Each structure stands twice: as C-alpha cells, then as structure tokens.
C-alpha cells in the first residue's frame, strides 16, 4: 500500500508545478525582475511564516501537529534579518501584506486553531518546499544581486541547524506516515495540501501583477 507521505507528494505534484511555473517566479528566476521584487516577496513570507510559527507555539503539545514543531525549521528570525538588510532598519513600518497574503496567513491561523492535521499540511508545503526548491531562489538571488553567499538578504533559505537536508526530509516523511487518522482524514489532509499550493500561487499571481516584467 502506498505510504501517506508518497500519497501527499504525488497528489500535490501538479499544484507544485503550477507554483514553480508562475509568471512571477519564472521572471524572478529568469533574471527579469529587480531586487525590489525579491524584497517584496520576502515581505510576504514574513506574514505567512508569522502565522505558521505562532501556530507552532500553540500546537507544540498537540499529538498530531506537535511532532512537526521543530525549532531548527523556524524562519522568522532569519526573515527579519533579511528584511532589515533589504528594507532598512525601519522595515516594520514600510512592509505590507498583499490581500492574497493576508488570506493565506488567515487560513493557516484558522487551521492551527481548529484542525491541527490541516496545519500539518501547510507546514509540509512551506518548510519542505523552502528546504528544497528554495535553494534555487537563494542561488539566483546571490548571483543576480550579489548578496553574500548564505548571508544577509537570503538567510531565510539557509537552514543552519539542518546539516543534512536529505536525512531531515526522510525523517519528516516518516512523521507524515505516522499521522493518526482514517482514510477520510488523510484525504482531507491531501486536499489541504492542494489548498496550500493554491493559496501560495495566489500570492505569486498578485506579485506578478505588481511586477509585470520590471527590470
């Protein structure tokens, strides 16, 4: 029988490709956008991870979501260092969330409040995505705008406390396989993974409208 982690990865593959193929991300990775677009994207991440990590604090003792609360994954401190570098010391007063970002963050918070297994779906799509494909974004940013390698501006993508990402992903998939619940609940979690990708893609679409091929 197919493992639950394999089911999630297979079922969400199409949505993952849509995110990777978004106009904004394609333009960013294709060196067609300026550093301001990258900084604006980093702003949106701060709001999304604010919802994820405040949810983690509440769910640390939860039997379903608790095992996924791993401090080595937390990104808020790194994001804040990046935003200070990208937007200056007063960054908190100048950044803003797009409507799509507010909805994304709101939905994560709602899952954390009422459905821990749904929160796990968002946890998976974000953290494992940034641990994997996020490294392409980091490399592009370093080469395009001359950011220090794994330093200011791209600290968000540097998981210093995870020396072996491949081993960490294997342990994470084992946690997914151990998530309690019947077949119906697992199908709900898979559907929530798809929703997470759709919410993320909506943010990319909004960013694409804000940065239509600005060089």
Automatic annotation (TrEMBL):
<dbReference type="GO" id="GO:0006788">
    <property type="term" value="P:heme oxidation"/>
</dbReference>
<dbReference type="GO" id="GO:0042167">
    <property type="term" value="P:heme catabolic process"/>
</dbReference>
<keyword id="KW-0408">Iron</keyword>
<feature type="binding site">
    <location>
        <position position="9"/>
    </location>
    <ligand>
        <name>heme b</name>
    </ligand>
</feature>
<dbReference type="GO" id="GO:0020037">
    <property type="term" value="F:heme binding"/>
</dbReference>
<dbReference type="InterPro" id="IPR016084">
    <property type="entry name" value="Haem_Oase-like_multi-hlx"/>
</dbReference>
<feature type="binding site" description="axial binding residue">
    <location>
        <position position="16"/>
    </location>
    <ligand>
        <name>heme b</name>
    </ligand>
</feature>
<dbReference type="InterPro" id="IPR002051">
    <property type="entry name" value="Haem_Oase"/>
</dbReference>
<dbReference type="GO" id="GO:0006979">
    <property type="term" value="P:response to oxidative stress"/>
</dbReference>
<dbReference type="Pfam" id="PF01126">
    <property type="entry name" value="Heme_oxygenase"/>
</dbReference>
<dbReference type="GO" id="GO:0046872">
    <property type="term" value="F:metal ion binding"/>
</dbReference>
<dbReference type="InterPro" id="IPR016053">
    <property type="entry name" value="Haem_Oase-like"/>
</dbReference>
<dbReference type="GO" id="GO:0004392">
    <property type="term" value="F:heme oxygenase (decyclizing) activity"/>
</dbReference>
<feature type="binding site">
    <location>
        <position position="124"/>
    </location>
    <ligand>
        <name>heme b</name>
    </ligand>
</feature>
<keyword id="KW-0479">Metal-binding</keyword>
<keyword id="KW-0349">Heme</keyword>
<protein>
    <submittedName>
        <fullName>Biliverdin-producing heme oxygenase</fullName>
    </submittedName>
</protein>
């Amino acid at each position: 029988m197919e493992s639950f982690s394999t089911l999630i990865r297979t079922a969400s593959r199409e949505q993952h490709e849509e995110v990777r193929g978004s106009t904004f991300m394609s333009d960013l990775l294709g060196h067609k956008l300026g550093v301001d677009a990258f900084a604006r994207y980093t702003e949106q991440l701060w709001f999304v991870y604010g919802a994820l990590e405040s949810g983690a604090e509440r769910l640390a003792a939860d039997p379903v979501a608790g095992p996924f609360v791993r401090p080595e994954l937390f990104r808020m401190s790194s994001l804040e260092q990046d935003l200070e570098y990208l937007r200056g010391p007063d960054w908190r007063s100048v950044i803003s969330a797009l409507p799509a970002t507010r909805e994304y963050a709101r939905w994560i918070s709602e899952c954390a409040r009422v459905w821990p297994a749904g929160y796990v779906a968002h946890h998976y799509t974000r953290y494992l995505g940034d641990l994997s494909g996020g490294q392409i974004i980091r490399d592009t940013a370093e080469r395009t705008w001359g950011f220090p390698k794994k330093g200011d501006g791209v600290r968000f993508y540097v998981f210093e406390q995870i020396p072996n990402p491949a081993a960490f992903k294997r342990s994470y998939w084992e946690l997914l396989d151990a998530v309690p619940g019947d077949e119906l609940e697992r199908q709900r979690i898979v559907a929530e993974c798809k929703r997470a990708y759709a919410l993320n893609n909506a943010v990319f679409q909004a960013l694409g409208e804000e940065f239509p091929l600005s060089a």
